[in-house]
Specification:
Layout: H1 3-33, H2 46-73, E1 90-95, E2 100-105, E3 113-114, E4 121-124, H3 129-134, E5 142-145, E6 148-155
Parallel strand pairs: 2-4
Antiparallel strand pairs: 1-2, 1-6, 3-4, 5-6
Helix pairs in contact: 1-2
Amino acid sequence: MNKPHLIAQIITALEHDLDVVTRAAQSAYEAATAEENIAENKYDTLGLEASYLATGQARRSAEIRQALHAHRQLKLRDYDPQQGVQVSQVVTLEDEQGQCRRLIIGPEAAGLKIGTGDGVVMVITPRSPLGQQLMGKHIDDEVCLNATRWTLVEVI
């Protein structure tokens, strides 16, 4: 697992998401301010709805910008058995049935998935329930989430 390459993929995915959200926000803004969408009566809410949508898209855009900045500034750390799992490390968890799940502890962008098939790596943050449990853990430690018990089998 090449962590610098994985971080580069996360940044690329976030840049793509930012581009999509920015265009959507611009489109919603244009709809909200278009002359033909000026309300003619109290039931004519198209302009208002577009305004709410533009506001939401702008907030999402700010969140993605923050995640991009955090990942660009991220210092990659090698696993240190003294400290246990830390931000920027890729962990592999194995459940009781032998199913493996690979995660990267990132500063932001929780839920983002990179890769396909068995090579999928999901970003979680230390603020998530699983991230909170993983911080400081060591290989062979167990974590439990939603009645599923996972064993930490690898940290990169």
